[in-house]
């Protein structure tokens, strides 16, 4: 199941942490692919990650949260915030 599908299923603590584990695995997979065949520094990585460092990841979460005022703080919304750290600039 891909990250978007898992994101759509988040509705509890259990499914939230399943999503977090999959997100971590997705980043590890991309890092391994980048070691073998690096992508351009001007594009996202193999799995679509834009942010390589924790500070960049957290900055993206912060920016996404600030730019999207309609977010309710439930488990699914929190998962969406974490997911946004992957692609939001």
UniProtKB/TrEMBL annotation:
Biased composition (Basic and acidic residues): 26-36
Ranges annotated as biased composition (Polar residues): 37-46
Start and end residues of each DUF7660 domain: 12-89
Annotated InterPro entries: DUF7660
Stretches the record annotates as Disordered: 26-48
A Pfam family of this chain: DUF7660
Name assigned to this protein: DUF7660 domain-containing protein
Species whose genome carries this gene: Aequorivita soesokkakensis
């Amino acid at each position: 199941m891909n990250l978007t599908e898992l994101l759509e299923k988040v509705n509890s603590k259990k499914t939230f942490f399943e999503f977090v584990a999959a997100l971590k695995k997705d980043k590890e997979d991309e890092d391994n692919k980048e070691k073998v065949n690096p992508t351009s520094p001007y594009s996202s990585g193999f799995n679509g990650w834009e942010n390589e460092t924790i500070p960049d990841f957290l900055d993206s979460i912060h920016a996404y949260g600030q730019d999207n005022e309609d977010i309710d703080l439930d488990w699914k919304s929190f998962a969406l915030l974490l997911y946004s750290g992957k692609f939001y600039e």
